[in-house]
Amino acid sequence: MKTLGNIIWVLFGGFAIAIEYFFGGLAMMLTIIGIPFGLQSMKLGILALWPFGSRVQQKEHTGGCLNMVMNVIWFFVGGVWIWISHILFGLLFFITIIGAPFGKMHFRLAKLALSPFGKEVVSK
Length: 124
What we know:
2 strands, about 120 residues, about 70% helix, two-stranded antiparallel sheet, mainly alpha, single chain
């Protein structure tokens, strides 16, 4: 069931969100300072491409203050724009009952798009 959900996800908006993450990540990696943000964007792009069957959890050994600073910078650099994309896709999917699971997934990814540092993706 997860595989079918992921295939439908990719066809109806997951690919567009993943491309947004990948292009944003490549643009951030043009500078040395932006490399950590670009890498995080690539990780989120992979999650956005195939989200069903994965979950996000807090890392055990977090960077503490560094993660907070990185999340604040991330918010202003690109997090808010990706968050808006997820919210718009989520609202679009919630128009129909069939699209509700996909809208719920977009809202879950929207929360992650605001503060991705200090979190890791694990398979269920």
